[in-house]
Amino acid sequence: MNNIVxxxxxxxxxxxxxxxxxxxxxxxxxxxxxxxxxDSGPGLVHRYNPRTKALFSVCVGQPIGAAIPxxxxxxxxxVRDGIGLVDESTATLEIFAxxxxxxxxxxxxxxxxDSRGRLWAGTFSTRFVRGAGALYRIDPDHSFTSLLSGVSxxxxxAWSPDETRMYxxxxxxxxxxxxxxxxxxxxxxxxxxxxxIDRADGLPDGMTVDAEGFLWVAHFRGGVVRRYSPSxxxxxxxxxxxxxxxxxxxxxxxxxxxxxxxAAHTLTPEQLKKEPLSGALFRCRxxxxxxxxxxxxx
Length: 298
What we know:
The protein is an all-beta fold. The chain has one helix and 25 strands. The longest helix has 6 residues, at 269-274.
């Protein structure tokens, strides 16, 4: 396709108007045909079935950044206290990697898996201390390794279709970075800026890659999702009816539905009157397919 995509706010479908504090971490579970996403502050894991329009939710008891299917069943989650396993049937959370347990003000945020089933997840300071966070790789044996330090707000993670490039957002970093990725070893190096994002356009948050290798980035407080070519050129946008756009992911049977999560976090009553759909889950058909989401191998 490679043409510029533009979608106006009136072309969006409101899937669920649930007023999420911070709707985050959408991922398509191809085995069940459902969308998994979270509401970060309240610690809610949502599973939405577009066929039945049913929403099933569980609370893990602490703030959460993402929940991702495991190959052996259940979910792996990046939560305040580290990385844990979630059993949706019993609403229980078992921490197996207490990452940064010695840092009381730090918590996990966004997370995603590569095709080998390695989980990547990062942290940030809830007091928003600059450089207090890090990015980790959690291997299938549940061991974890710090790969990047000095991170302020670890956020979106995505890979090019051939997994030779890893895209990464530190939301305080004024843009999206890219690293060279070795899928065999699970190492990322040579970090550099992929695209600059002006503060007036919002903070780079969650993101996903389509089948053509274009990157879709949610702009938190920017009211837009933007599409960037593999060379970093702007290649389209989705205008949102809300300012706090948190993340996006492709789903549906053909992976051509783009789901977009948003937030009502910190908005005043006056702001909510102007943006009554803040915290809703949206969907559109941008004319390009996404890539299948990867499950955690541990």
